[in-house]
Amino acid sequence: MRTVEFVITVLLLELTPGPNMAYLAALSLTRGRRAALAGVVGVALGLVTHAALSALGIGVLVADSPLIYEALRWAGVAFMLFLAWEGWQGANDGVPEETATSSAGQLLLRGFITNVLNPKSIMFFVAVVPGFLTVQSNATARLAALGALYVSIATAVHIAIVLLAAELRPWLLEGRRSLWVRRALSLLLAGAAAWLAFSTSR
Hints:
Blueprint: H1 2-14, H2 19-31, H3 33-55, H4 58-64, H5 66-93, H6 104-116, H7 119-128, H8 139-172, H9 177-199
């Protein structure tokens, strides 16, 4: 029963718009399905990192250290703003998706950074996940299992977002509409940065 409650909690969290959703939707619309799926892998690796830190007890140290927490929080905000600025510059230059030079490895790394610098993800593992531990369970093993379940659900949601955006891409990026869509996506990323700064402040 606790596992079902955990699944519902994770689904509600992942279906709430945030930095990961904004980044992956923008990536799928501007670079295409394949590029966005590389980003999904990067985000998943970021989630795995947070889950591993939580299982090892290191996540608590991050949450309890105001200096580390704030550095992580503002680094995440700055990175999202950088992505927004880069997208806006690309829109101004009229650079089509096909000429983008970022490799799959670079896109994966960006997805990883986008997620691993999100302190809200760490706080979920530190503050929420332990509430789903049972008295009979081995804490480390249970945290690892819940972390794996969380990564699986989040990745499934992210893939769905990418595929949906990819389906809409041909229509949204047709003709002059492309410029306005790319600018709107840049503003969306900037908004996600502002949301991250506001929602993770203490």
